[in-house]
Amino acid sequence: MKKILIIEDNELNLKLMKDVLEFAGYEIETAEDGLTGVDMVKSEKFDLILLDIQMPVYTGYDFLEATKDIERPPVIVVSACAMDKEIEKAKNLGCIDYIPKPIKIDEFLNTIKTYIS
Q1: Distance in angstroms (rounded) separating the CA atoms of residues 38 and 40
Q2: What residues make up the domain containing 9?
Q3: Number of Cβ within a 10 Å radius of residue 79
Q4: At 18, which CATH number?
Q5: What is the tens place of the pLDDT at every residue in 18-77?
Q6: What's the structural domain count of the chain?
């Protein structure tokens, strides 16, 4: 079973993504901020990371910066920050794709499948 880490501080967004992905057959771990996510990536193996950008303690950008020199799985940003400069900044820090919020479940699952098959 493929294992996905969701780093998201909003409980409703987190529950929606977790429920959809568990229903699709993925094993899910969660972190409420980027700092916790960094610790988890250093201690566990994941097949994919879904990352919010705007979070307390450690933003998605902080997470990307802190993990750029360690082995990490592909990172997909899931965020309402949909401006081109925000997406470009995340891609420059190593994310492979971007899913805008609110998520559209079919597109969300198709994007996940693209990177985790």
Answers
A1: 5
A2: 3-116
A3: 23
A4: 3.40.50.2300
A5: 999 999 999 999 999 999 999 999 999 999 999 999 998 899 999 999 999 999 999 999
A6: 1
